[in-house]
Amino acid sequence: MQLQDNVIEEIRKSLDIVDVIGNYVQLKKQGKNYIGLCPFHSEHTPSFSVSPDKQLYHCFGCGAGGNLFTFMMEIEGMSFSEAAESLADRAKIDLGSSFSKNSDKRDPNNQKRKQVTEGLELLTKFYHYLLTTAKYGSPGMQYLENRGFSAEMIKHFRIGYAVDSWDAVTNLLQKRDVNLEQMERAGIIAKRGFDNKYFDRFRNRVIFPIFNMRGQTVAFGGRTLGEDKPKYLNSPESEVFHKGSILYGYHLARQAIRKTSQAVLLEGYVDVIRAHQAGVTCSVASMGTSLTEAQAAALTRMADTIIICYDSDNAGIEASFRAAEMLQGNGKVIKIAKMPEGLDPDDYIRKFGGERFKSDVIGASQTLMTFKMGYLRRKRNLSDEGDRLLYIEDVLRELTKLNRAVERDHYLRLLSEEFSISLDSLKKQQHQLYTMVQRREKQKARTMPLARTNRIPPAYEMAERKLLARMMRSREISDRVQDTLGGSFTIDVHQALAAYLYAYYAQGNPPDEGLFIQKLEDPALQRKVSELSMMPMSEQVDDKEIEDCLHQVIRQSKSSMIADKEEERKKAEQSGDYGRSARLLSEIISIKKQLGHFQVEHD
């Protein structure tokens, strides 16, 4: 195990946490640290901080925190061993086969997930081999060539072909000793009712592997080449495939998104492949479903500008509106690319070419407000006076959400000119609506309980936090606190951290918050360490500050002891145990005297 600890430490020191987290969160430098929107909860103001010096992250909003390994475990839903393997691969470090085997024994669920992903990877290679081998794949290749898919994109997106056979995949899985029951749960094979034998679900179909954010195959989509129904057959949700948390093509688009700080959101995987072929390599898809909070968070973390390019039918327009509502805020620029009636991006590019798509569709995207005005217009009959007034009020209500006065003024002038209404009256009406919205928000804020993060901690809690933060940075301070306080911290999580810290230094480890977190297994303790590590503190240690903190904790500890013994004494009296009650009273008096002397000495 010691060898593995050394390898884990080598991974931690070989990678920069800012680079790793930067693949998931758009980070901006602020002082010594980097900040961004937290990937673990929905927020509009950045509260997520990453420290390159300490190699730690912490969210001051939701409390999430830790190091490289905990981040990968949380963001990707990985076990520790999966996170270690992923990071080792990135750092080009060999973990050794024993690590994987031992970790699988400790975590059976990890073993199952790994077997499924390995099975899906095997089939991705198999389907692609069948497609690119003329003997088997000519029907699939002919279809793709007729649709204008380039050889580069076929390879890039690892497109494949499932031959018209009931058992080609089943036989391969059996030969490779892949667990058939798990592959059935992943929706790759199915079982016949009459003889309980497995058979292939995907037959005579062009296969589109569906990847998670890391680029691992987690499912397949198959387009039939015959008359089979449905036309597109997709794998069901499984323990490795959660549709709502995936943006198709994200792993291939990530670099382009980071470089341009722009993402194009499409509906389906065929649209994404076509867009990438046209040179719009920052394209991803929400898999034909309504955009989810997880997908929206992934987009807003990575891009400043997001262009929604859904179909132009009613369903597409409604989906665009919902997606825009989820994505807007925190200074993000949301645009809507208007597709011609009856065409999706795949159709458009095939008909008019990639350059036209880039210039006339993506390049000509509407501002969000222009799109909303068109969307609201569709809901009203503007030849009717009542509907016309309602439409104007709808638009004014949307204008209250715009932060920039110039923007508001621009759209107010458009309304004024179109409906021959004075600009002043529109401004007054819009201001009234804005005031009303603000009043409601303030009312709501007053009725809501105070957030955890707004709580002002009592002096003794702050003292304990400062001591622990200093202890993690200095063994000498830790030894001093141990000699003075021992385990007499009043807050349970602080008491636990102090105990772990004493043991950590006793093992000869150096002051290193990132390494200390690595030694902890409890996520709550890991989060607390990252929180305390990010506390703003002067580099210079003030001896008086340490002394004051120790006094605060001792004072609180003795006060808590008195309160506990008072409670015990009351219970003893109520139960008639007057002898125990007298002994407790004597102890209380003694502690009060000690506390009195202590306060006289240090006040």
UniProtKB/TrEMBL annotation:
Keywords: DNA replication, DNA-binding, DNA-directed RNA polymerase, Magnesium, Metal-binding, Nucleotidyltransferase, Primosome, Transcription, Transferase, Zinc, Zinc-finger. GO terms for biological process: DNA replication, synthesis of primer. The keyword Zinc-finger applies. Its cofactor is Zn(2+). One of its GO terms (cellular component) is DNA-directed RNA polymerase complex. The keyword Membrane does not apply. Residues 560-579 are annotated as: Disordered. PROSITE patterns: TOPRIM (PS50880). One of its GO terms (molecular function) is ATP binding. Pfam families: DnaB_bind, DNAG_N, Toprim_2, Zn_ribbon_DnaG. It is an enzyme of class 2 (transferase). A zinc finger (CHC2-type) spans 38-62. Binds 1 zinc ion per monomer. Residues 563-574 have a biased composition (Basic and acidic residues). It catalyses: ssDNA + n NTP = ssDNA/pppN(pN)n-1 hybrid + (n-1) diphosphate. It comes from the Bacteria. Residues 261-342 form the Toprim domain. Its EC number is 2.7.7.101. Belongs to the DnaG primase family. RNA polymerase that catalyzes the synthesis of short RNA molecules used as primers for DNA polymerase during DNA replication. Contains an N-terminal zinc-binding domain, a central core domain that contains the primase activity, and a C-terminal DnaB-binding domain. Monomer. Interacts with DnaB. This is DNA primase. It comes from Sporolactobacillus laevolacticus DSM 442.
